[in-house]
Amino acid sequence: MNKNNQALSIRTISPTNVTTETWKYGQILRGIDEIVIELGDAHWYGGGGLVHQLYPLEKAAIYANPFLTSDNGHTGLLGIAEPFWFNSNGQGVWVKNDDITMSFNAPTSGEPPQHSFFESASNDIRPRRASDIETDGLLRIQGNDLTIYLFECDNARAVVEAYWEQITISPPPPAWLLESPLWTTWAHFKNNINEDNIQEYVARLLEHGFQMSIFGIDAKWQEQFGDTHFDPVRFPNPRGLIEKLNQYGAKVTLWCIPFFMPESEHFQEAIAQGFVLCDQDQQPFIGQWWEGKAAFLDVTNPKAMAWHLSNLKRLADEVGLHGYKFDAGEGMFFANSGTCRFMQDAPNLATKRYIEQAATVFPWSDVRTAWRTQAIPMLYRQWDKSSRWGFDNGLASCITQAITLNLLGYPYSFSDMIGGNQYGDDRADGELMIRWTQAVSPMPFIQFSIAPWDYGTEVAKICARYAQLHQHIAPYTLKVIQQNAPIIRPIWWLDPTDTIAQAIDDEYLVGDELLVAPIIEKGAVARNIYLPKGKWRNYWNESEIYQGKCWLEAYPAPLDVLPLFIRLHD
Predict the structure, then answer these.
(1) Helices (H), 322-379
(2) Count of CB atoms situated within 10 Å of the CB of 108
(3) How many Cα atoms are found within 13 Å in the side-chain-facing hemisphere of 206?
(4) Which one of 69, 73, 240, 370 has the lowest number of neighbouring Cβ atoms within 10 Å?
C-alpha cells in the first residue's frame, strides 16, 4: 500500500453506486460505465504501443477511441496493448475488461487528424504532442460493467511489481534466440525475393562477420497471398535452400497472414468450410488489408485455426521450417470487417485467440500483436518502424516502446528491423544504420534486414562489431531473464523517486547492471547523459568511473561509439 496515503484523483465515476472492495494494493471497483481520472502533476506510463511513442505518456494527447489492438490505428494505437496505466506517484489503473473506450490527456476540441503512414513526420502526429495543443489532463475510460483495479503503492516500480504479480509471464525462450541476431528479407527486398538473391544476401552477411539465429523469409515466397506452398518459379528447391541456411547456423521462418486472396489455393475451401468472417447477413466477408481484398480467417473459431495451422504445419514439415512470422491479427480487422463466430463484443479477444493457438503449434515464432498474452511463448515485434530518427515511429521510439512493452509484461519483444522499413520516401543512410544498431544491440533480441554493407565497408564493420556486442552481452541477459522482471527497464527503476530519471526518454537499463545511452539525433557526436543512483563505469574504459545522480555533459560519442555503462558494487 502507499505509505504516503496518496490516491488517484478521481473526478467522476458513473454510475455512482459501484461496488468497491479492498485488495492488497488498493481498491477494486466493479460495475463502472465510466471513470475519469485527473492526471495531476505525475509522470504517466503504460498502455501499449503507439505510432508516436512519446514518453512519459503525459507528453501525448490521445483522442477518445476504442482501445483496440490496431495496425496503425485511428488515434495512433498499435498492435500490442494492455489497459494498464500508472504514474510516478505509485498510482495505477488496470481494467480487466476486453472492450473499452479510452482517451488520455485528450484535446479539448476537434477531430483526430487525417493520417497516412506515408505522410511526413511533421504531419504524422497521432497521438499529438500535448505541448502543441490544449488538452484536458484526464484519463477517461468507458465501457459496460467494468471491473477496475486501482493501485496505491509507494512508487512506480512498486506498481509495476504489484502488476507483475497479477499476470503470468512465459518461461524464457531458448538461449540460442538471444545469442545471434534475427534476420528477415522484408525491408531489403520487399516482395522481390527468390532463392538466388537470398543466397547472395546470406553469403554477404557471413562475409562481413554477421551471424544468424533466425532467418525469416518474408513476402512474397508464395504465388498468392494465403497460399501454403512456395512459388515454384522463385523457389524451385525450398528445402535445399532451408537446409543450406541451417548449415550456416540459422533456423528458418516464413511470413504468413490470416487472409486469403481470391486467387489463393485456400480461398474457396475456407469459405466452404465456414472458416472466414461473415458479414451481418452471414455471407462471407471480403475485406481490405494492405495488399488488397481478401477473405479473413475467423481466428476465434478453433476449427478454423486448427485447419489453418495444419496447412502451415504440413508445409513446415515438407521443407524443414522452424516456425512462422504471424503477421496481422489485430482486433481492428475483426472489429471493422465482419462478425466473429464465437465472439461478438470484444475484438481484442481475436488477437488473444490468434496468438494462443499459433503458439500451440509454433512456439517462439514472431507476432506483432498482443492482448493479455504475456504467458504465451512468442517473440513480440514492435510495429513496422519508419526509417527516421525520432519518436515519430523512428529510432528514438525503439527505446520508449521497448521500455513500455517490458513494463507491461512483454520482456520477449524486439524493436522491428534495424534502420526501419524504408516505406514511402523514408530512406536509411549509413549513419542511421550505425546508430540504430548501437541503440538496440544490448537488447535481448535484434533484427537486421537492410544490408549494412550496402553503405560501405566501414558501416558494415561497425554494425558487425555491435552485433557481436549483442552476442557478448547475451549471457548477462539470460541471467536477467531469470529475475521475473522487465529485461529493458527505465532508468528510474533503480531509484523510483528520482524526478530527473522519471522523465528520461533516451536511455534505458538492461537489468540493473547495464545502462545504455545511445545517440538518437542525426549528426550528433556527443550527448548529455544522466546516470541514476549508484557507481558507474564506462563499459569501454575500466578507469572511467562516476558516482550516480549526476549529468555527464556533452559526453563524447563519435560514430563508432555507443555510450554504455556498467553498475559497480562496493
Answers:
(1) 331-337, 348-361
(2) 10
(3) 14
(4) 240
Cell of 464: 558487425
Confidence class of residue 343 from pLDDT cuts 50, 70 and 90?
Answer: low
The rounded distance, in Å, linking the Cα atoms of 85 and 40 is 14
Residue 180 CB neighbours (<10 A):
20
CA terminus-to-terminus distance, the chain: 31
Tell me the per-residue pLDDT of 416-455, one tens digit each, with 9 for 90 and over: 999 999 999 999 999 999 999 999 999 999 999 999 999 9
Q: How far is CA 277 from CA 115, 263, 336, 360, 382, in A?
A: 27, 18, 11, 22, 26
Domain 176-258+302-481 indexed as CATH 3.20.20.80: yes
Residue range 488-568 in CATH 2.60.40.1180: yes
| Dist. CA 74–CA 502, nearest whole Å | 29
**Residue 523 pLDDT:** 98
User: Do residues 94 and 373 make contact, with C-beta atoms less than 8 angstroms apart?
Assistant: no
Distances (CA, A) of 349 to 156, 301, 370: 28, 11, 10
Please give the DSSP secondary-structure letter assigned to residue 15: S
Give the SS3 label for residue 444: coil
As a whole number of angstroms, the distance between CA 404 and CA 381 comes to 13
Architecture, CATH, for domain 9-166:
Sandwich (2.60)
Q: Exposed (0-12), middle (13-18) or buried (19+): which is 145, by Cβ within 10 Å?
A: exposed
The residue type of 561 is V
- DSSP class per residue in 103-125: EES-BSSSPPPP--TTS-TTT--
pLDDT score recorded for residue 113: 57
Strand 138-152 with 101-104, pairing: antiparallel
Whole-angstrom distance, CA of residue 466 vs CA of residue 440: 9
For the chain, the structural domain boundaries read 9-166, 176-258+302-481, 488-568
Domains 9-166 and 488-568 share a fold: yes
Please state, in angstroms and rounded to a whole number, the distance separating the CA atoms of residues 25 and 150: 8
CA distance 374 to 392: 26
